[in-house]
Amino acid sequence: MLESIEHTTAYIKSRIGDFEPEVGIILGTGLGKLVNEIEIEKQLMYSNIPDFPISTLEFHAGKLIFGTLGGKKVVAMQGRLHYYEGYNMQQITFPVRVMKMLGIKVLLVSNASGALNPAFKKGDLMVIEDHINLQPHNPLIGRNEEELGPRFPDMSEPYKLDLIQKALDIASAHQITCHKGVYVAVTGPNLETRAEYKYLRIIGGDAVGMSTVPEVIVANHMGLPVFAISVLTDEGFPDTLSPVSVDDILAIAQEAEPKMTQVLKELIAGL
Question: What pLDDT, on the 0 to 100 scale, is given for residue 33?
């Protein structure tokens, strides 16, 4: 794996010259328009990068964007990878390792997720303060590469507390409804049953989604501080559960996206 990471990193550096990103960004489902705020210097298609997995979802652009946002040099993944696409956990998290090798000092992650907490509503934002991993595999299984991180990384603060507070303060200043809560990661791609939503709430979940946790585990393994934010696109409340389509989820994500963009822009500017 280390050889592949070094090979991919070397290729990207040959394409971006002396550009060295400070901040890595992963943009989730329906949340790719943050790139419109970036002063873009270079774009690379995933399909043109050696060893780089390709997003199979039609609503994920599959581009690596290099530029400036909030006065900081950033690299943004416009489109992420998911376990349900058939990739293994090492492939899903490969881009995080490459971004670290490119020089990023912090990772910001976004996603679309379903609300479990009845105090939350679709269209709200939720800063992730902790997570519960119900996905069936872990990206750190296998031989550990000491150059990348320790065999048993600590996860007592997977999401940086100071970044969480800064984001909540930004949201409050703009009258943006933004909660903090626990994110539960499941496999997907189907949404949850009524009983599953009830179970996920009982075990402590405030929102549920199909991504983010593998990337966060690997970022912590490599010593990267992480901030993550969810757009709540549907409501998994057992007593009032109704059918949800992907089109519904994308519509809510796109409607809420400007609020998320505001928070991320100001958070990046203050790093």
Answer: 82
pLDDT at 79: 87
Task: With CA atoms as reference, report the closest residue to 13 among 50, 47, 40.
Answer: 50
Q: What pLDDT, on a 0 to 100 scale, did the predictor assign at position 32?
A: 80
Q: Counting Cβ atoms within 10 Å, is residue 152 exposed (0-12), middle (13-18) or buried (19+)? A: exposed
Range 95-117 average pLDDT = 98
Closest by CA to 215, choosing from 185, 192, 253, is 185
To the nearest 10°, the Cα dihedral for 238, 239, 243, 249?
-70
DSSP for 56-117, please give it: --TTS--EEEEEEETTEEEEEEES---GGGT--HHHHHHHHHHHHHHT-SEEEEEEEEEE-S
Give ∠ CA 194-195-197 in degrees, rounded to 5: 65
Q: How far apart are CA 101 and CA 252, in angstroms?
A: 34
Mind listing the domains of the chain with CATH numbers? Answer: 2-269 (3.40.50.1580)
Average pLDDT over residues 59-84: 90
Average pLDDT, the chain: 95
Alpha-carbon distance of 122 to 58, in angstroms, equals 23
The closest alpha carbon to 26, from 107, 130, 127, belongs to 107
- The partner residues of 112 in beta bridges, in order of sequence, read 231
pLDDT digits over 132-180, tens only? 999 999 999 999 999 999 999 999 999 999 999 999 999 999 999 999 9
pLDDT given at position 59: 53
Are 62 and 46 in contact by the 8 Å Cβ rule? The answer is yes
Give the H/E segment covering residue 12: helix 2-16
